[in-house]
Structures are given as structure tokens and as C-alpha cells.
């Protein structure tokens, strides 16, 4: 039985074309600024998100953390959604490494309300930390890959600007957001100071992310990266994969979105399972199994026994996420196997 791993867009293996690009990359010592492939990658990456400069980093987590370190001084306040990746999944690095003080502003399925945001920004006062930064995330992972519309995104940036805050965008999946919104990635960066973009999600690289911003800002991110032990040597092996991904794997993200939609439609019709179709805007499908009589871990293990690997969002959801290894046949096969699990459990008579 072929195992279908539909847990995340991080589960991809490099394609033959990507491995070939790595094999033929020209290399040098990046800490000396002498790796031509890294330079080429950083130029292309900055162009693709409409920023002045970019820096290759090892992971999305490192990209966000180095950007936060470059934006604020220990003790400063940063406003962010408690469901954001930076707050929820990054080991508290913003507090225990960057030394920043989080001020949570909850989003509604990934959407922060501009008025609620404005209400949370306090006027300077001896008793308060200095509020420096707003962090946004697009697509928004924990809400099911939802796309924050460009207009709302710009309104939030505007509120931040009016209060003298900088804006950092966790754009781990910014090319998904742009594809789904029908705009350019650079439209989302027009009003932000920095962005972090992952190469390891839908773009299919084995590792790497980049941070982009002004030249001066990227200089600070470079120092933060070095401080964290993220300075690299012949990093062209990573950058070559990044160049390949930016040139070959951005346009095709639309296919992942179409397949996620198809998957959601087919699963939504099955007894015991439902999908809030409004939330399926990019490559993720959050499936509510509360009517199936199975717990999240029971359903996940039954699916695993039938060769389908998914991720869990307990207590009521599992997540499926399409990626470049999936074709239309994969989606049909996943739905077939889900049906068989439901039959076995007698949810589907
Ligand atoms: C929105 C978002 N930001 C940042 C990251 C962190 O990326 P990495 O796993 O490369 O550290 C992820 C990873 O899933 C993510 O979904």
C-alpha cells in the first residue's frame, strides 16, 4: 500500500531538477560574502517580494526571530495574534531570546480587526513598555490557511503606521496568499518593513527561508542571524534550491489550492465529517470530525492504518494540506480511504 502523506506542505522531497541545481551550484564562503549562488538567490528573493534586500536563513522560525531581534530592543512590546505562528509555535523565542514583550490581539479566523488593534496600542507612558512592532501572518496557518485580504492587510498596516509602529509580516506562505488573492506577493509588502518567507512549504525546498526588508534592516538581521549561530559557509547548496523553487514552484501553487478545494468538497459530503468551505482558501483543509464518534487521535490512527498521514488539530479537527507530490489521483485516493475508515467505524452505513 502506498503511503499518502498529506499532513503538511513541509513534507516534500527535492525534485530531480532541484537536486541538479544544487549539484551544479557555484559555491563560496557566505560569511565572507563570497558565495555567488547565495548572492543571486538573495537578489531574486528581494525582487520577488518587492523589497530592497533579502537574507537567506535556515528556517521560518529563524527568519521571524532574527527579524524581531532587528526590530526591537529587549523590553519593547510587540503586538500579535495569540494564534500566530510566532506566538503559538516558536518556543517563546520572541520573549526568551529577543526579549520582547508580547501584547496579544486575537484574530477572528486569522483576521485582526483594525479597531481592536488600534484599541490595544497604548499611548506612551512611564509605566508601559515601548510598543514597537505589529506582526501579521499571511496565509494564516492556525485558521486553516486563510488569506488576509489585501485591503484588510493594508488597513492594519495603516493603523500601525499612525501609531509609529513597524510591521513584520510572517509570510511563510506569502506566495500562496498572493495566488489565492489574485495579487502579487509584492502587493503585500508595500506597507510592511519586513517579511519572512519559507522555501520549505509549498515551494518544495529541503530547508531555508529568507527575510526581506531595507538594506539597513537586513544588515541588522544578518547580525542577529550570526548571533544565533546561523552564519553559513557554502550556503549556495541551499540557495540553489531556493532559486530553483522561486523560478519553478511559485506558479504551480494554484494547483495545490484547487486540489485542496476539491478534497474539501468531497470530504464535506461524508457523514460524520464537515469542512467549513469558507475557510478553504489556499492549500489547507481543516476537517471537523466531531460527529464521527471518533476522537482526533482515533481518527488519525485509523487513517494512518489505511496509509493516510494527516495532522491533528484536537479536539475536533484533523488537517490535510496539499503539496507538490499530490496529483488529482492522490486526492481521489485519500477520499476513498477516508470513506473506508468511516465504513469500518460504521459512521458510513
Ligand atoms: C506561518 C508560519 N510561520 C513560520 C513557520 C516556521 O517555519 P519553520 O518550520 O521553517 O521554522 C511556519 C511553519 O509551519 C508557519 O506555518
From TrEMBL:
Swiss-Prot/TrEMBL cofactor(s): pyridoxal 5'-phosphate
Residue stretches in coiled coil: none
Record PTM N6-(pyridoxal phosphate)lysine, positions in chain: 201
GO biological process: glycine biosynthetic process; L-threonine catabolic process
Keywords: Lyase, Pyridoxal phosphate
Pfam family, one: Beta_elim_lyase
Keyword Protein biosynthesis: no
GO CC entries: cytosol
InterPro entries in the cross-refs: ArAA_b-elim_lyase/Thr_aldolase (IPR001597), Low_specificity_L-TA-like (IPR023603), PyrdxlP-dep_Trfase (IPR015424), PyrdxlP-dep_Trfase_major (IPR015421), PyrdxlP-dep_Trfase_small (IPR015422)
Aromatic amino acid beta-eliminating lyase/threonine aldolase domain location: 6-288
Major enzyme class: lyase
EC number annotated for this UniProt entry: 4.1.2.49
A molecular function GO annotation: L-allo-threonine aldolase activity
Family: Belongs to the threonine aldolase family.
NCBIfam families per record: GntG_guanitoxin
Protein name (record): L-allo-threonine aldolase
Species this chain originates from: Bythopirellula goksoeyrii
Gene, per the UniProt record: ltaA_2
Amino acid at each position: 500500500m502506498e503511503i499518502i502523506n498529506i499532513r503538511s506542505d513541509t513534507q516534500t522531497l527535492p525534485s530531480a531538477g532541484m537536486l541538479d541545481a544544487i549539484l551544479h551550484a557555484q559555491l563560496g564562503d557566505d560569511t565572507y560574502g563570497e558565495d555567488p549562488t547565495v548572492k543571486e538567490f538573495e537578489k531574486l528573493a528581494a525582487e520577488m517580494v518587492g523589497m530592497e534586500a533579502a537574507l537567506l536563513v535556515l528556517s521560518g522560525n529563524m527568519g521571524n526571530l532574527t527579524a524581531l531581534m532587528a526590530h526591537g530592543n529587549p523590553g519593547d512590546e510587540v503586538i500579535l495574534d495569540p494564534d500566530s505562528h510566532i506566538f503559538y509555535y516558536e518556543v517563546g523565542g520572541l520573549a526568551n531570546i529577543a526579549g520582547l514583550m508580547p501584547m496579544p490581539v486575537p484574530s477572528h479566523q486569522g483576521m485582526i480587526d483594525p479597531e481592536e488593534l488600534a484599541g490595544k496600542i497604548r499611548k506612551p507612558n512611564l509605566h508601559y513598555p515601548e510598543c514597537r512592532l505589529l506582526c501579521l501572518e499571511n496565509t494564516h496557518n492556525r485558521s486553516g490557511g486563510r488569506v488576509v485580504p489585501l485591503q484588510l492587510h493594508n488597513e492594519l498596516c495603516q493603523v500601525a503606521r499612525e501609531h509609529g509602529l513597524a510591521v513584520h509580516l510572517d509570510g511563510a506562505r506569502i506566495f500562496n496568499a498572493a495566488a489565492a488573492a489574485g495579487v502579487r506577493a509584492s502587493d503585500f509588502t508595500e506597507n510592511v518593513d519586513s517579511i519572512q518567507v519559507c522555501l520549505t512549504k509549498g515551494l518544495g525546498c529541503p530547508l531555508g527561508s529568507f527575510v526581506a526588508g531595507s538594506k539597513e534592516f537586513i544588515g541588522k538581521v544578518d547580525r542577529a542571524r550570526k548571533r544565533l549561530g546561523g552564519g553559513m559557509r557554502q550556503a549556495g547548496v541551499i540557495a540553489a534550491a531556493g532559486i530553483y523553487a522561486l523560478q519553478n514552484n511559485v506558479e504551480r501553487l494554484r494547483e495545490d489550492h484547487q486540489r485542496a478545494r476539491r478534497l474539501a468538497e468531497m470530504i464535506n459530503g461524508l457523514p460524520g465529517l464537515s469542512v467549513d468551505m469558507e475557510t478553504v482558501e489556499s492549500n489547507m483543509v481543516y476537517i471537523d470530525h466531531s460527529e464521527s464518534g471518533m476522537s482526533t487521535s482515533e481518527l488519525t490512527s485509523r487513517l494512518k492504518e489505511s496509509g493516510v498521514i494527516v495532522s491533528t488539530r484536537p479536539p475536533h479537527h484533523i488537517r490535510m494540506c496539499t503539496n507538490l507530490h499530490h496529483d488529482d489521483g492522490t486526492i481521489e485516493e485519500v477520499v476513498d480511504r477516508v470513506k473506508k475508515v468511516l465504513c469500518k467505524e460504521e459512521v458510513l452505513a
